[in-house]
Design brief:
alpha+beta
Length: 128
Amino acid sequence: MIPDKIQKLIDVLSLKTETKKAIWTKGSTEAQYKISISDANALTISRWVDSYKGIRQYELIIYGEGGTAIESIEVSDNDNPIDFEMFRKLYELARRSYFKTDETIENILNAIESNDIVGKEDDDTLPF
């Protein structure tokens, strides 16, 4: 079971991210996102698949002053489904925020719903 304060942190941060009031950056791995809360505090959310066990896992790390990891919590799809879903949702919100997914989809919709021609000819030749 995830501690109450961590649940609240995830809930509030998820809401801030959903309402576009949180700025996520890329973490140190391909599947990690980071948010700096202040000069002294940050957190990361990561996802990976344990290929040996075949399970999905998420990890939330909270960093204190000097970049020291002060809390680390992992959940997998073998754990409490509510906890797993909370971490999965935060990860997906962070990923979508970083890549500006909603804005990109909106731009594409605006382009294809207009009367303008969409697409362009590709001058690149195939490498084979």
